[in-house]
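## tool: complex_structure
## caller: assistant
## args:
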Amino acid sequence: MEAMTQTGNPTSDEDLVANEYLTFTLGCEEYAIDILKVQEIRGYEQPTLIANAPPFIKGVINLRGTIVPIVDMRIKFNLGKIEYTPFTVVIILNIAGRVIGTVVDSVSDVISLTPVQVRPAPDFSGSFDTKYILGLATVDGRMMIVTDIERLMTSADMELIDDASASS
Amino acid sequence: MAIDMSQFYQVFFEESAEHLAAMEGLLLDLDVGNPDPEQLNAIFRAAHSIKGSAGTFGFTDLAETTHILENLLDRIRRQELGLRAEMVDAFLECGDLLRDMLEAHQGRGAVDAAAVEAICARLRQLSSDQPAAAPARPAASEPVTANAATGGKRRFNIQFVPTEVSAKGDGVKQLLDELAALGTLEILTQPVAGVHDVGYWQVRLSCNVGQEAFADQVDFIADNGAWRVLEDEPSAAADDAAFGFFDDSPGAPESDPGYGFFEPPGEPVSEASAVAPDGDGYGFFEPLPDVVPAPAAPPVEEGEGYGFFEPVATLPAAEPPAAEEGDGFGFFAPLPPVAASDASPAVVAPSPAVVSAPDEKATVEPRGRASKASPAASASDSSIRVSVEKVDQLINLVGELVITQAMLLQTATQMQENAPERLLSGLVQLERNTRDLQESVMSIRMMPISFVFSRFPRVVRDLSGKLGKQVELKTTGETTELDKSLIERIADPLTHLIRNSLDHGIELPEKRIAAGKSPVGTITLKAYHQGGNIVIEVGDDGAGLPRNKILAKARERGLQVSDQMTDQEVFNLIFEAGFSTAEQITDVSGRGVGMDVVRRNIQSMGGRVEIDSMLGVGTRMTVRLPLTLAILDGMSIAVGDQTYILPLSYVVESFQPQLGDIKTLSNQARVIQVRGEYLPVVVLHELFNLKPQSGDFSQGIMVVIDADGIKAALFVDALVGQHQVVIKSLEANYRRVPGISGATIMGDGHVALILDVSAIAGMAKSSVQKAG
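## result:
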């Protein structure tokens, strides 16, 4: 873990460019996603159910005239307690030209990470496939799971997009 | 000055399409026997504008074809040729091909090169027929006027720029020899030998023959338009010596027949970038209003050249695409409306100069600018082109505003007594304003239905000719407005209905006379508003629908019919797929495909079609459409804690069932008897896996739906109300959901899903079939 702090030795110019990430918690895990994919953050409101949708698709909400599907990542990945409190937050993502909302326990921070700080994740199997993980990063002793949110949301697993338009 | 022309392509395509449409409309209006010169001029101008801009943008195929078309039109409007019906046919056909070319340039479809060739040949042929007055060559647009045979020697001033091939070979020499054989030949100007082979020639020929005798040869060595022949007769060139290929501003009336193509003196003209340094007598000049006017100085023929000057445009002008040096013409960007002050004197003045000194710069002849400026200017000022996306965005925002306003109002009413008087009155005011705003924003998308109707005179004309019928088309209510997206989608179904009326409805003239009707059939096309709908009627005074024949045909096809069916029901059979009573299949209709597609298309727009018919009197098809695609008349229904919208047009009736009404088939599928018919029961909460308010059938409501003839009874918890809802796409951000066609936002800001009735009815049918 020596090279993972802000003072790590950069190897190239590209590695110097820090990207900003939004971090959020699901249960006791912390995730980081590219902030440029985030459109806004809003409180949770009861969505309209969609018939016969998988349980982690909570339904659709009206976001200023746009119909936006809401995904609960906690249900999808079996993380933490599924409860909706006034602090439950929906991150509205703008991915592949679509607007998608995702329910998380809380939003923590916006952090800067350079590519060197993101270390490859060890190979493990689980519901959260490693192909959606860009790597792991440590900030102030906390481990962040840096997620390829675009790939995750457009994957067939999420059942958000018709197969025809699915990309991975 | 490399300007990316492609950014203007779209404008060009739209404009050209408009010109083509205008041309077609005018052609159809034209009285062949006694054409109105104004109309002829307008047709000519449309062709002229297309040619000009096509050249500017480098669409040479378009430019060349329109050029030939224009030449013939020009001769007709100058009454050198009489207008004949076959010419109108050729023009219309040519217009179709031009439209194909435009489409092809936009990447849609391909142009039939052979057809283009054929129509060009036909136009040339038409143009060379009847050599009444003077010139025979159509490709020349030669200006020589009607004073043809004066006897004695005629002197021609021949100017041309040979193509590179003929200039390098001995084509020019051969031409000169041939000309010399006709009479006395005098070379006035020739390019500096060796410097540049392609160059400007001017010769004078005195001979006894007309120019038809040598025009072909000249045309052979020079490109179309890169040559001209002037007859040196005082009267000849007076009003139309100069010709050119230059663009007008669209729709500009061109009052003087001799159109010149030069900037009027006084306009700053810069030729800075253009002139081929080696003595071609013309150049392509870039218009740069802010550049100091430079004296025109093409090295060899001073000032003679027909120059190709860009009109001073508001856009930084386009580089003429014709980079080939040696082509004696240029293409000009459409001229935007120009200030009209420097008008009439300039127009008159240059004309005499043309006569006496065709090789002087005096050929510069400003057009009648005064006349053109005002209409063009007013037309462009009164409307703007805005992308549909922007309008849709605006409509969405206003939709949002309406919802927000409704939410506010709801909150205020919940406060009841506590709400301050001023807040309430303010909210009422807001409600009125938002409604007005919504209405006016919606009206932006509205277009008069004449956009669709205008194509039908042509359809009727072509078809009636083909079928040997005499048909008159009457349209009313062309100004009725409906949504642009509907306009685009209604065109095909309507065309089909009209073709159908023409083919099956209207009888042949003999039959009509025998039936005591006028030999000329009438098709009426009517559009009007009725309630929240727009109604389009296609009526004919033809034979009417033969009820017995339809019934017989239906039995033949194994459809369930009975003699007790109402006329309406019988007539609706013709919308069944593959149904045709035509005795023989024509290439117009009768194959039985079509009416079912018509009905499906209209239903997909949320509309419906009805038929009224009386044997021997006529048929009337009535199409009812919602005013806009974005709004739907819906019934909101409650299932469990959810609200769904059921499109009202599918709802037949609703009633509260008794427990015993519902029977089961093999203990699985449920059916209910409604007015003697057993309908499958679709229990919505089961379909959507919801917890119902009550599982008891007697506590809920049955809604009978009819989707494309498939009926089903939908069991819901309650009917909530009837609304007009704005349709939102679910697929934009999510995916297709079976049984759901879209979503909408209710007054409280919540999303309600719109049921896909056809899919649900289909589900019901398949479940019954499985059980049975």
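## assistant note: The CA atoms of residues 313 and 336 of chain B lie 6 Å apart. Residues 388-415 of chain B form the longest helix (28 residues). Handing back to user.
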